[in-house]
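ARCHIVE CARD
Drawer: 12
Card no.: 0347
Subject: one protein chain, sequence and derived structure
Cross-reference: see card 0346
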Amino acid sequence: MSSEIVKSIQFICDEKGLNYDTVMEALQSALAAAYRKDFGNRQQNIMCVFDPETGDMKMWDEKEVAEDVDEEQLEKDQEELAKRREEARKEERELSEEEIEDLIRFNPKTQIMLSEAKEHKKKVKVGDTIKIDLEVPGDFGRMAAQTAKQVIIQKLREAERNIVFDDFKTQEGGVTQGVIQRRDRSGGYLIDLGKITGILPQTETVPRERYNLGSRMKFYIASVDMGNRGPEIILSRKDNRMVESVFEQEIPEIANEEVIIKG
């Protein structure tokens, strides 16, 4: 990866208001994941450092040194652990520490046995962290450039979602305008709010009120939450607070509390 790409990252960060360090951390994590997928294995805890000045990368497998355990007994205990987890899952609960304290626990992805660790570093003890250097193939640079582009696109999307979320979160409990797009499977409506689509559940509609597609209406912003796919905005047409919010927008005396609406 060349320094020109790094300059491009910095330019986009400045233009879009992204944190450069956050993007670089995400880039290094993505590079480590890409390396593990194509050149490593699932048992490696791969870390990556990318030097923005030179474009060089360093990869290593980072593990905590643990006591040696009998591998045959470890395999039996892992099978037993899987059985206990399945039983707990059927009972819809999590296993407690007391229920598994009799089992040998060893995570080959994040841990390495003492005897094996000494093959890489003689002066090492249980509890130490050991870094096993990995070779970076020459053609990995092209993959790194593509990964950088993907990370930037992802971060831009996250930033845009956060901007929309913050914008509507400040409007929560207020009234906004939107255009009715279409009806959803649950009987509610999808509302075009400009930057995002809001949801008007059937339970928040007014009986006998017409909701014609393409019509512009006012909606009460009942809740704004961040979901897995981005901001989730729930709207209402029947919330009692909607009338009060509309009056506050239209009548300055109510907004200034010179006139109070009593229910």
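Annotation on reverse: The chain is about 40% helix and 25% strand. The chain has a mean pLDDT of 84.
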